[in-house]
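2024-03-11 09:14:02 DEBUG pipeline.ingest accepted 1 chain
2024-03-11 09:14:02 DEBUG pipeline.ingest length=348
2024-03-11 09:14:03 DEBUG pipeline.predict start
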Amino acid sequence: KEIKDLQVDVSLGNDGAVLGVILRAKPNTLLAKALEQKAIPDTSLVGYVAGTGGIVGCIGGDSDTLAEFLGAKVEEVLAAAAPAGESPLKPAELKAYLERSLGLTSAVAFDYLTTDTESTFNGVMVLHVTDPEAYETMLRNVQKNLDATGLTDLYTSMGMSLTMTFKEKVREHDGVAIHQLIQDMKAEQITQMEEMFPPMAALMKNFTHMEYEVAFVGDYVVYDLGSQRMDATIDALKARKPLATTPLTAQQIFPKEGIFYMDLHPGRLATWGVTVAESVMGEMLAAMGPQVGQITASLKTLETKPISAFATAYQGKLQAQLFLPVDPIVKIKDVLTGQALAPQPATP
């Protein structure tokens, strides 16, 4: 209802393909207002994450108009999905919570899925917030806020439970208090799956029980999920010295006016995926023979150029581009077809 037109194009080159999308909003709509974006966000925030994960990027912009649009859409969808009183969710309260939480955040940098930590699902986020005190208050009351929106009741109606616990000052680094935010989800189906296939238990715990470290450094909030980079990130923010000195590939190849940049690294994701697979079914993979062993060994050391994404918004228009290089396609194909396999140790 709010989209005027949508244009999609694909261009091919020797080094890869570019997918482009242009979306125009109808005038005087919430979507048009959200896509106005009068100021260009400071995407240099991405320098404060190490940038070694499989998914690295940043997003920013006019958070108030975006929060207003998303809040209205959520309320609209929920109202259409179930008549009043038939759903545990409370559309008005959920809308207000989304607008409040999103409206406090002007930019986010993220770095997810590295393989240099014991935690399988890991990552770091650095947020620039407009009101650190209000944001901290929101975190302290996270369970109360979820209860008010009806989200916890929704989980209960599906035979699940969701609890969020904020623990204050579990440790300290260089004078900065580090808190803990624990997300715990339980469901009978998950318990049964873990009992039937014990190797899945540790993997599932990464998604059902998440322990974030949270720290406030001036106008910045740092979340660390098992990556053990909280201290280094605090040091970088306090010294105003970025951890990553090289911009994202997306920042180098796309225009400077973006509100979103992301590099997705197929090689790093392959390494992470193999590590996860080995933790769950290592014996099965080993029993498949030496060729599978060569493939997994090759994927664990695979280095590729990233798939890069970009988006910008102005005057009621969203423009997005995705660059898919040939490099990862060729390298992954070579590994899977046996043309670039890692050597295996000789059998005595």
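2024-03-11 09:14:41 DEBUG pipeline.report The chain has 13 helices and twelve strands.
2024-03-11 09:14:41 DEBUG pipeline.predict end
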